[in-house]
């Protein structure tokens, strides 16, 4: 497709085939990604009070300025980056702000949107920081063991703080509460990618063979299993099952991709099933979640009114195909965590199956772009890192969206970019920044053989 | 490694597809059952999110809606709640709806598809039309007269416009204020419990949902069957009737409360309510003719709706002669709702033609555009014109000469029939005093009102005259109100128009009817 330009190019040192940078496409999509949430913001105001909210212009300008800054950072420091990643992130973040603002109108005493806006700014700031400071993602490979140490510290820290809502995953500092486990996800992905990239041959081809299973030597596998077990153990102790499920899935996927051994997937699934059964039957907190999942309407039959999951299902069903329209649903009936874990129910009710599918497809596109960046790269660390980061998003979306729609037992987790929660938002912006960086390397090194 | 990445990507894609499939399952396929789950408050929130349409009597709403600002926003309010409770029923956030609030709920709640600009429009836009209006046929003055006439006594009144079937009054006492049941708080629950536990049954609409033994008022039906069947040739010829009358095939004797019934003429027996004459007449007419006449007048019909469902009145179709004799004077298993007896009087007044009684004149949008109108519908011709004429004479005689003198109205022709019914084991229950009648203003072309009154009257002794004593004055007040006679009766042909209650027309009703 770039043949003619390549033929007429001046005989300089540039490679024979140059991919288009697509920064103009990104800017155009960003415009759309800013306008859609501004429209949603106005729609909420029109539905609730019959007038455009007074802050609409400021809100649009603020979001637009953030998007523009992020775009400039990408344009100058990662010019070959995938043009879809940033607009998707801005759009999802904007939709999240609209949904939270919309729910704030039902709870005048508890306003979350302003805080979320501050966190969004911080997230975009970190995004810009990562894009500007990190010139090459391979630098991260050097900090593998520092990453894992940091991840473990972050994971253990909340144990020393009081539990909030049955889970010990928060650190309360002043008015802010931080979920360190969210940051640990990125660090663990870096560690897994780096370690597996370095030892993948040893994992795949050495060790003894038992029946059809090729087991690697303990020297190679030992550290990674130990660290994984430790992190999962910490999470079970903290009662944050969503994140432990996420780590587990991440570990299995990366191990499989690194070694190409299907046996790992089988062992992983077996371990997961055993772990899930043990935790499900021993841990009362988890056991009740499973009961809720199996019988979402049990509390109605018992005369205690609908539980959270039942209310969430009611909200989704009320949305139907086209939704009630922004501001016209009653997802606030879910009550506690309506703006965080259950934010998707508001999207489902007010935007309908159509809007919900669009949001899930946006996530799908984000994940797909992450995988594509990995495929285009030649070196294993970058491949595994982009795979890992994309898988984190995919797994997280599946765990929480599946939870609130009754597909799997509900585990407390934040919908990436949409849900109220600063730590999660900032982490996801870092993930997108790393994917931008990796896709930039992938596409700028494109040699015309592998698919971009 | 590349193929492994592709496989991992496929797994991630499958996870997202699973989410989409599951979302479709919930939002499309199971949405109906989730939406209808009683624990899901959305339907209630939507239902009470707008003002409920009003029910109109005589052009003025007797209901209103109050914005409470709660989650279920609008609550029903009633003007003259106890007076109109047998018409409106209640619309409660906690206990559902009854009577017109129930049968016309789609119009009042704005969910009737015909209220939308285009049928099906609201389903598409998820909108709800503003609540429509229900215009009743009730005549406010007649309703008020009936309610005041009954006062603190237990009873019911039903009044009909004979030529059209329009129900002019529908009263049941003791009544209740339906506004007490509107909300959903503790006081509503208390009121509900108390009203349901009340031995006086204030929630019962006696005019259409309670059947009573009609007593001597049923003699109108017996006389109609006998005249129609030719069992009576000349109403003034003495009948061959013993007093007391021994019931056929039994030793039981039937006696009278009045003198002069032995061999009395049918006219005398009707005017003074001789049981013996009519019991014998019923047997002579025969079961088939008697049952046929009763059924043509509306007995044994369980599906009548006005649009409120009306309880079936009963006249047995299989019995022996002794039972037929008792049934012919409105005893044994014969039972009738007050509305049914009003229909009997109306049929006589209307030349034998039974019009389908109806309570709703039309329904309109909140702007006043007609959604549906109810036309006059003839149920059947119960008797010939000539039989009806002769019965009118008999009934007029009963008011002018006989037991119903209390119902006479200067300036109008009134025909009526009294009745008293004993009930309970050994007739120990409080007797029911009955009066059914019709009235035609002088100079009018046709009778404008037929009415049935039943009063549970402790003072009613076995004298048949008690129907004339306690029930007839109520019927008279209702008829006077319905005839709308001027203070000084004049012979004015235009009075007929004013005698009929004018159809209620809300202000702003300037649109032509859109649909039938």
UniProtKB/TrEMBL annotation, chain A:
Major place of residence: membrane
Membrane association type: Multi-pass membrane protein
Annotated GO MF terms: lipid-linked peptidoglycan transporter activity
Keyword terms: Cell shape, Membrane, Transmembrane, Transmembrane helix
Compartments in which it is found: Membrane
One GO process term, biological-process aspect: regulation of cell shape
A Gene Ontology cellular-component term: cell division site
Pfam families the record matches: FTSW_RODA_SPOVE
Top-level division of the source organism's lineage: Bacteria
TM ranges: 27-46, 52-72, 84-103, 115-134, 143-163, 183-199, 220-237, 249-279, 313-336, 342-366, 387-408, 414-436
Protein name (Swiss-Prot/TrEMBL): FtsW/RodA/SpoVE family cell cycle protein
TrEMBL record, chain B:
GO CC, one annotated term: plasma membrane
GO MF assignments: penicillin binding; peptidoglycan L,D-transpeptidase activity
Stretches assigned to the Penicillin-binding protein transpeptidase domain: 155-480
Keywords: Signal
InterPro entries in the cross-refs: Beta-lactam/transpept, Beta-lactam/transpept-like, PBPA_dimer, PCN-bd_Tpept
Domain Penicillin binding protein A dimerisation: 52-117
Annotated stretches, region: Disordered: 485-516
GO terms for biological process, alphabetical: cell wall organization
Signal peptide coordinates: 1-23
Name of the molecule in the record: Penicillin-binding protein 2
Provenance organism: Streptomyces himalayensis subsp. himalayensis
């Amino acid at each position: 497709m770039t043949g003619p330009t390549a033929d007429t190019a001046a005989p300089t040192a540039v490679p024979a085939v140059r991919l288009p940078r697509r920064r103009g496409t990104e800017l155009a999509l960003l415009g759309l990604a800013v306008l859609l949430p501004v429209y949603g913001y106005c729609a909420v105001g029109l539905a609730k009070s019959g007038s455009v909210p007074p802050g609409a212009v400021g809100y649009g300008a603020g979001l637009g300025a953030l998007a523009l800054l992020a775009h400039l950072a990408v344009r100058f420091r990662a010019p070959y980056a995938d043009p879809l990643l940033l607009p998707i992130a801005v759009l999802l973040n904007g939709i999240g702000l609209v949904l939270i603002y919309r729910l704030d109108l039902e709870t005048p005493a508890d306003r979350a949107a302003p805080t979320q806006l501050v966190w969004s700014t911080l997230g975009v700031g970190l995004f810009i920081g990562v894009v500007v400071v990190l010139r090459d993602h391979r630098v991260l490979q050097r900090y593998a063991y520092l990453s894992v140490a940091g991840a473990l510290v972050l994971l253990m820290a909340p144990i020393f703080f009081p539990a909030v809502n049955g889970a010990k995953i928060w650190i309360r500092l002043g008015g802010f509460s931080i979920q360190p486990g969210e940051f640990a996800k990125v660090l663990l992905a870096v560690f897994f990618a780096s370690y597996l990239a370095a030892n993948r041959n040893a994992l795949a081809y050495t060790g003894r063979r038992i029946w059809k299973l090729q087991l690697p030597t303990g020297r190679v596998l030992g550290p990674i299993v130990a660290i994984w077990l430790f992190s999962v153990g910490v999470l079970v102790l903290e009662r944050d099952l969503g994140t432990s499920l996420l780590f587990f899935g991440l570990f299995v996927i990366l191990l499989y991709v690194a070694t190409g051994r299907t046996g790992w997937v089988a062992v992983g699934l077996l371990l997961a099933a055993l772990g899930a059964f043990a935790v499900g039957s021993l841990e009362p907190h988890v056991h009740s979640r499973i009961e809720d999942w199996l019988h979402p309407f049990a509390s109605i039959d018992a005369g205690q009114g609908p539980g959270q999951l039942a209310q969430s299902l009611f909200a989704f069903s009320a949305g139907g195909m086209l939704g009630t329209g922004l501001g016209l649903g009653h997802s606030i009936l879910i009550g506690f965590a309506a703006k965080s874990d259950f934010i998707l129910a508001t999207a489902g009710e007010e935007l309908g199956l159509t809007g919900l599918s669009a949001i899930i497809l946006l996530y799908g596109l984000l994940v797909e772009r992450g995988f594509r960046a990995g495929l285009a790269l030649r070196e294993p660390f970058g491949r595994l890192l982009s795979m890992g980061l994309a898988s984190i998003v995919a797994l997280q979306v599946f765990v929480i969206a599946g939870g609130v729609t009754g597909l799997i037992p509900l585990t407390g987790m934040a919908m990436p970019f949409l849900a109220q929660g600063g730590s999660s938002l900032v982490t996801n912006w870092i993930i997108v920044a790393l994917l931008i960086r990796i896709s930039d390397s992938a596409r700028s090194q494109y040699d015309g053989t592998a698919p971009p | 490694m590349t193929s492994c990445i592709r496989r991992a990507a496929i797994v991630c894609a499958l996870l997202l597809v699973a989410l989409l499939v599951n979302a479709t399952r919930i939002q499309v396929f199971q949405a109906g059952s989730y939406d209808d789950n009683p624990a899901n408050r959305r339907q209630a929130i939507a239902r009470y999110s707008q003002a409920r349409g009003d029910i109109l009597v005589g052009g003025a709403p007797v209901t209103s809606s109050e914005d409470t600002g709660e989650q279920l926003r609008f609550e029903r309010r009633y003007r003259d709640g106890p007076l109109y409770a047998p018409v409106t029923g209640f619309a409660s956030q906690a206990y559902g709806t009854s009577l017109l609030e129930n049968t016309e709920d789609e119009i009042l709640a704005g969910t009737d598809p015909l209220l939308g600009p285009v049928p099906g429009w609201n389903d598409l836009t998820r909108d709800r039309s503003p609540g429509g209006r229900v215009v009743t046929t009730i005549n406010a003055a007649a309703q008020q007269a009936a309610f005041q006439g009954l006062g603190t006594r237990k009873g019911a009144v039903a009044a009909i416009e004979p030529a059209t079937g329009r129900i002019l009054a529908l009263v049941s006492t003791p009544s209740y204020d339906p506004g007490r049941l509107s909300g959903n708080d503790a006081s509503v629950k208390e009121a509900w419990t108390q009203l349901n536990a009340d031995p006086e049954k204030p929630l019962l609409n006696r005019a259409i949902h309670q059947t009573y033994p009609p007593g001597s008022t049923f003699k109108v039906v017996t006389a109609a069957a006998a005249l129609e069947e030719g069992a009576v040739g000349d109403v003034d010829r003495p009948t061959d009737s013993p007093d007391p009358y021994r019931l056929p095939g039994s030793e039981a004797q039937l006696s009278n409360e009045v003198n002069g019934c032995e061999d009395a003429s049918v006219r005398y027996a009707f005017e003074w309510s001789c049981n013996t004459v009519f019991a014998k007449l019923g047997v002579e007419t025969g079961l088939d003719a008697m049952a046929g006449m009763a059924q043509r007048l509306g007995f044994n019909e369980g599906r009548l709706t006005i649009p409120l469902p009306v309880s079936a009145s009963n006249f047995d179709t299989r019995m022996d002669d002794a039972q037929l004799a008792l049934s012919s004077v409105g005893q044994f298993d014969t039972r009738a709702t007050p509305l049914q007896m009003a229909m009997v009087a109306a049929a006589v007044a209307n030349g034998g033609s039974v019009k389908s009684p109806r309570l709703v004149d039309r329904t309109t949008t909140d702007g006043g555009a007609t959604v549906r109108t109810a036309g006059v519908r003839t149920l059947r011709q119960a008797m010939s014109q000539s039989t009806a004429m002769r019965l009118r004479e008999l009934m007029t005689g009963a008011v002018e000469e006989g037991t119903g003198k209390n119902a006479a109205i200067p300036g109008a022709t009134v025909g009526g029939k009294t009745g008293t019914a004993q009930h309970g084991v050994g007739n120990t229950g409080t007797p029911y005093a009955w009066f059914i009648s019709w009235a035609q203003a002088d100079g009018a072309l046709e009778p404008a009102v037929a009415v049935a009154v039943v009063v549970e009257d402790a003072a009613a002794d076995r004298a048949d005259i008690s129907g004339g004593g306690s029930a007839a004055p109520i019927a008279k007040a209702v008829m006077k109100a319905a005839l709308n006679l001027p203070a000084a009766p004049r012979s004015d042909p235009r009075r007929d128009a004013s005698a009929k209650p004018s159809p209620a027309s809300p202000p702003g009703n300037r649109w032509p009817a859109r649909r039938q």
